[in-house]
């Protein structure tokens, strides 16, 4: 873009990033969440986290950070075998385990 003074201004593209809280630090869904995280519970035979990640990718988000505590190993394993781990994925997804968080605020500060 020419400003008229002979210099060219380069427009910077902002990259959207998202933080997804995949744990609510409560036991409201027990016993259904005894062996798997709430975000992997199926909704129409699709894990609920897929709906969130798909909407973020369609909205232009380039990186998503999933914060979790309970069953973090299962969520990490799911993401590693999903479409989000492939090289051609439209968004990079990272799972971050917050072991000592007891509230949502603790997870966001981590």
Task: Give an overview of the whole structure.
This protein is of the alpha/beta class and 110 residues long. 25% of the residues lie in helices and 22% in strands. The protein is built from three helices and five strands. The chain has helices at 48-58, 72-81, 104-109; strands at residues 16-21, 42-43, 46-47, 61-68, 92-97. The strands form two sheets. It has a three-stranded parallel beta sheet. Strands 2-3 form a two-stranded antiparallel ribbon. Strand 2 (42-43) and strand 3 (46-47) form a beta hairpin. The longest helix has 11 residues, at 48-58. The chain is globular, with a radius of gyration of 18 Å.
Keywords:
22% strand, two-stranded antiparallel ribbon, 110 residues, 3-stranded parallel beta sheet, alpha/beta
Blueprint (SSEs and pairs):
Blueprint: E1 16-21, E2 42-43, E3 46-47, H1 48-58, E4 61-68, H2 72-81, E5 92-97, H3 104-109
Parallel strand pairs: 1-4, 4-5
Antiparallel strand pairs: 2-3
Report the average pLDDT across residues.
83
Helix content: 10-25%
Strand order of the largest sheet: 1-4-5
Which band does the percent of strand residues land in?
Answer: 15-25%
- Note the run of SSEs as H and E: EEEHEHEH
The counted number of beta strands is: 5
Largest sheet features: 3 strands, parallel
Tally of contiguous helical segments: 3
Structural class: alpha/beta
């Amino acid at each position: 873009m020419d400003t008229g003074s002979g210099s060219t201004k380069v427009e910077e593209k902002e990259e959207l990033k998202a933080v997804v809280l995949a744990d609510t630090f409560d036991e409201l869904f027990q016993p259904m969440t005894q062996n798997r995280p709430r975000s992997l519970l199926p909704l129409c035979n699709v894990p609920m986290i897929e709906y969130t990640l798909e909407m973020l990718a369609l909205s232009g988000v380039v990186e998503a950070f999933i914060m979790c505590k309970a069953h973090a190993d299962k969520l990490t394993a799911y993401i590693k075998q999903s479409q989000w781990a492939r090289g051609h994925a439209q968004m990079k997804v990272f799972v971050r385990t917050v072991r000592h968080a007891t509230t949502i605020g603790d997870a966001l500060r981590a």
